[in-house]
Amino acid sequence: RAVCKDVCHLKTFEQIKEEIAGYQ
Amino acid sequence: DVAKAIVDLAVCGKAQNRSYERLALLVDTVGPRLTGSPNLEKAIQIMYQNLMDDGLKNVHLEPVKVPHWERGQESAVMLEPRNHSMAILGLGSSVGTPPEGITAEVLVVSSFDELHRRASEARGKIVVYNQPYKGYGESVQYRVQGAVEAAKVGAVASLIKSVASFSIYSPHTGIQYYQDGVPQIPTACITVEDAEMMARMASRGTKIVIQLKMEAKNYPDTESFNTVAEITGSKYPEQVVLVSGHLDSWDVGQGALDDGSGAFVSWEALSLIKDLGLRPKRTLRLVLWTAEEQGGIGSLQYYQQHKVNISNFSLVMESDLGNFMPTGLAFTGSDKARAIMKEVMNLLQPINTTQVFGDGEGVDINYWIQAGVPGASLLDDLKRYFSFHHSQGDTMTALDPMQMNYSAAVWAVVSYVIADLDEMLPR
Question: Is B292 in the active site?
Answer without folding.
Answer: yes
